[in-house]
Amino acid sequence: TMTAVMIKSSVFTLTDEAGVSVSARISITVNNINRDPEQRQNVDPQAIAEDADQVQLLDLLAYFFDADLNDQNYADQLNYELTVNPVELGLSVAGNILNANPAENFNTTGNAPLDVTLTVTDNAGGAPLVAAFTVAVNSINDAPDAFDQLTPATGAEVSEEVNLTFTWAEAIQNEFEQDMVNYTVVFFMEGVDDTV
Length: 196
What we know:
Layout: E1 4-15, E2 21-31, E3 38-39, E4 46-49, E5 55-59, E6 64-65, E7 78-84, E8 91-94, E9 97-100, E10 114-122, E11 129-138, E12 149-151, E13 167-168
Parallel strand pairs: 4-11
Antiparallel strand pairs: 1-2, 3-6, 5-9, 7-10, 8-9, 10-11, 12-13
């Protein structure tokens, strides 16, 4: 809805040489027109760390502008719609702030950054503004999950000079990582190497 701006009416008086006058009142009404959103600058490629929880990615008013935002007679506002795949990136807009909250252990390392399309409109339904940028989620190294020794059982007693075979459950590495898992076995004698 547009708000009309009324300029106060004025009275104009015309007088001829004989001193005869005639007056007319003229009123002018100026209506607002909607101005479409504009882009101040391009959005550079963005990067965040894996498992970073919620991150404030962008202040969108630094990138997008509408001349009607500061119009006292016609207060407009910007609206944002995001398109991104996959949803694990967790993008959302609160006010004019673009936040990212990637899913646990999600990263794009080894793959192309994610394409994000941001569509900006105003309340008056003017022409939409579409901006595209990328977001990368950089991997951080995760420790392997805990694993269990299978044989011999913990606390088992064995005879001297018996060959022992130690087996344990495979350590499960993060499904998004391709690290090799290395094992280290440390032996100690109870009562002698209690500090190990």
